[in-house]
Amino acid sequence: MHVGTVNIPIAYDHPDASHNTCSTARAWAKRPREPEAGEKPELIARIKRMLKEQDAVLVAHYYVHPDLQDLAEATGGIVSDSLDMANFGNRHPAKTIVVAGVRFMGETAKILNPEKRVLMPDLEAECSLDLGCPADDFSAFCDAHPDHTVVVYANTSAAVKARADWMVTSSIALPIVEHLKVRGEKILWAPDRHLGGYIQDRTGAEMLLWQGSCIVHDEYKAQELLELKAQYPDAQVLVHPESPRAVVKLADSVGSTSQLIKAAQSSPAKHFIVATDNGILHKMRTLCPDKIFLEAPTAGKGANCKSCSHCPWMAMNGLVNLAEVLASGKNEIHIDPHIIPRAVQPIRRMLDFAKQIKLPSTGIGNA
Ligand code: SF4
User: Fold this and answer.
1) Ligand 1 pocket member 127 (CB < 6 A)
2) Average pLDDT over the chain, rounded to an integer
3) Are 165 and 346 in contact (CB under 8 A)?
4) Sign of the four-CA dihedral 279, 282, 287, 290
5) Which of 54, 84, 228, 346 could pair with 80 as two cysteines, CB 3.0-4.6 Å apart?
């Protein structure tokens, strides 16, 4: 039986909400300076030197600036989804993990590697899903539904993870929810309502959905996507399931960042319309140089997205502030040591499950 969504009074509901308008505006204003072309080689060389001197490894998300993605790979780090980022940091012998992404990714790295130093170019790089799911409100929601298994998406704070039974990523959410459904469990899902709805549609599981959303994916528009498809009738549409249901319905492939990249690689199509943060296009174009990737439209008639298919918080990562952080040692992630033992449990549960079903890459969030 499906259970309808519930309305929860939360601080964040839409990009129009004043709290988040402030947050996104601050994020855009805090974007690091783009280095001059002539300055870049010295800056990159300096970062490489500091990474080596400090026994540090750079792990970057697909949505951050291409310079950081390339630098991570050139220095023995990784560009990937955030669980692979955290797993990589866990396995890598480096004493310091530098996370180019958003805060919950740095926190996940720290939860899995509490003995290591975790740095980020900007600790104010947030996420609308994380912001829209405050730990106290979420805890009250869980208390009100004690007979439900609590499943949270990776895009949450350490405190919210500490309240959960399972953490999931977009590529493993389906098999985990299916597994819970077979066991007869009812699910309380947070925070992304679109991803939760997609999982609910696919599995038929009984789910209560927290009403959060991603400010980037929430703005993709089905009507404008149809119009773009009409211009490129042979195009394959790749959609991240944080997008609205009407957009997901138009997809040829739905999946996490890693799964969408694989879909682009394996499809014989020439054109692709991509409904996820445009930072991913760098990796898609690098891996598939003969294919053409188009951004799915966000600028519908009612659109108010300021990010134009790019996350304002991911955009807070750059070469300049990365160099500053390595030079100063500031922006270290700290998590209340009382929270870590509880927050690590739902993550480890997911990792063990992934190992059992031999999932090659878990793909955290669209993140
Ligand atoms: S793109 Fe990712 S990090 Fe940015 S707001 Fe959306 S879910 Fe959060």
Assistant:
1) yes
2) 89
3) yes
4) positive
5) 84
Q: Is the CB of 155 under 6 A from ligand 1?
A: yes
Nearest CA, atom 5, ligand 1? 127
**Residue type for position 253:** S
> What tokens appear for 92 in the block?
């890598």
User: 332-359, pLDDT tens digit by residue?
Assistant: 999 999 999 999 999 999 988 988 887 7
- In ligand 1, which atom is closest to the CA atom of 101? 3
CB count in 10 Å sphere of residue 302? 7
pTM over 0.70: yes
Which domains are assigned to the chain? 1-12+128-214+337-367 (3.40.50.10800), 31-127+314-335 (3.40.50.10800), 217-295 (3.40.50.10800)
What pLDDT band is residue 152 in, cutting at 50, 70 and 90?
very high
Any ligand 1 atom below 6 A from CB of 102: yes
Nearest protein CA to atom 6 of ligand 1, as residue: 214
Tokens linked to 144: 């009100």
Provide the b/e sequence for 36-55 (b: ≥16 CB within 10 Å).
Answer: eeeeeeebbeebeebbeebe
Q: CA geometry: angle at 217 spanning 159 and 69, to 5°?
A: 80
Band of pLDDT at residue 279, cut at 50, 70 and 90: very high
Ligand 1 centre from 314 Cα, in Å? 8
Any ligand 1 atom below 6 A from CB of 216? yes
